[in-house]
Amino acid sequence: MLIKKPSDIPSSEITPKWLYTNRRRFIATAAMAGAAAMGYKAFELFSPSESAQANEKLQFTKSQYSTTEKQTPYKDVTTYNNYYEFSTDKSGPSELAGKFKPRPWTVAIEGEVAKPRQIDIDSLLKLAPLEERIYRHRCVEGWSIVVPWIGFPLKALVDVAQPNSKAKFVQFETVYRPSEMPGLNRAVLDWPYVEGLRLDEATNPLALLAVGLYGETLPNQNGAPIRLVVPWKYGFKSIKSIVKVRFVKDQPKATWNEAAPNEYGFYSNVNPNVDHPRWSQAKERRLGEFLKRDTLMFNGYGDQVASMYNGMDLKKNF
After folding, report:
1. Helix, strand, or coil here: 239?
2. Interatomic CA distance for residues 279 and 117, integer angstroms
3. Separation of alpha carbons 124 and 152, rounded Å
4. At residue 2, does pLDDT exceed 50?
5. pTM above 0.70, yes or no
């Protein structure tokens, strides 16, 4: 069976979220009604799979970097996901991530650093005060969301790592657990998933290591227990369930860039003037909305990030 990648589906063919949601609600309601008629505990049988993970409340402060735009509903953000380690279907990750174990968890710091080490998740949570940052996100497929992430600046981890003068880039790696992540048993991509940033990008104040959303710890399908969030880049750069952070001299391998370099550049900055080879990036559709809106350069974060790319040809370095 041929599996379509996101790059195979033009944004114009993405099902409007209102239609998708209403159809799923109708099916779920009908299923629960049928179960009730049979005397079953309908809410136990048909409750959303994301509820299988007991998410904890987090303590945090509000951040100055938040947008005031309307937030995408929690239900949409936690049931419409790109996470190929579980499934290539948008609803698949929330349905299949229940067996994933986000604790215990450690992150390895490797490469051109003063002291390579392993840091457990509880120690990571103490690197800097947690903040809520409401960020816009733009997916390369053409849809967008607004999410209240809970996390701390990536720079706090970089400072602990103490990269030496040779370090110019940072590479991140996702956990590899085929027994808990069924998508890994299919050769859709070259596993494990890896991504990378330039060191100055990694230390930009907007770069965030997220450990929660909507005031709670991350659901499995959203990258538990810790993920990267770089809101001025397309969504696939925000790697999930990180287990390794490697500081390197040369531009590192990045999974989608390796799989299709003519479609997914290493930088992947949101740029309405650089189209995907098979569709325009000038417009986007916010989940929950029917009409499209204009795509903003750097996803609207140009004031904070544009200076890092002064003098670069952003069409060549896409």
Report:
1. coil
2. 43
3. 9
4. no
5. yes
